[in-house]
Amino acid sequence: MTTRATRRTVLRPERIRFVVNYPWGDVYITRLRRALQRLGLRTMNDGFIEGSDAGGFFVGADTKSLSRARRIIRNFDAMLETDDEMLDDERALNELLQTLAGTGVYEVTQDWKHLYYLADRETLHLLGVKLSEKDCGLDGEGKEVCEYTVRRLPQRKRRQRHTLRR
């Protein structure tokens, strides 16, 4: 007996709210990544920040973009193995990030302790997502928290894909 696969429509929420507390950057990165995935964006780990006191990931609109980004990163890693001086070259890393941006994949990073969410607003806007800080204050237990929302922008308000200014 053969069965026919059925297509299911996956409904994605229009707006996702998440709350962040201390350690700000670490919690923010985890919850932002989860929220972007729920909006339908694709993410992958950022191997360049492993071993540092930062957290982050790469984000793109689809799996095809992330596959291209993985190949670019593998080639970059191979170049690092042959040229140790490139490892400390900030210019080489910036060129890599510009190349990734050209494929529609962007890096989102934050220090584990300190949060500067404004740095992510332009990046996410390029992917058709608006990031907003809604409110900061004390929760019921007296701990300081901040609330953020991410939402998809209407198609006409999305920016053309271009490289970020660093």
Strand share of the residues?
Answer: 25-35%
How many helices does DSSP assign?
A: 4
Domain count: the total is 1
Give Rg in angstroms: 18 Å
Amino- and carboxy-terminal Cα gap: 58 Å
Number of strands: 6
In this structure, how is the largest beta sheet organized?
Answer: 3 strands, antiparallel
Structure, explained:
The strands form 2 sheets. A 3-stranded antiparallel β-sheet has the order 1-6-5, covered by helices on one side. The longest helix has 20 residues, at 63-82. With 166 residues, it is of the alpha+beta class. The protein is globular, with a radius of gyration of 18 Å. The chain is built from 4 helices and 6 strands. The protein has one domain (15-49, 56-157). Residues 1-10 have low confidence and may be disordered.
Give the topology, please.
Blueprint lengths: L14 E6 L3 H15 L3 E4 L8 E7 L2 H20 L7 H13 L2 E7 L6 H9 L2 E10 L5 E9 L14
Antiparallel strand pairs: 1-6, 2-3, 3-4, 5-6
List its traits:
166 residues; alpha+beta; 4 helices; 6 strands; 26% strand
Short description:
The chain is built from four helices and six strands. The protein is an alpha+beta fold and 166 residues long.
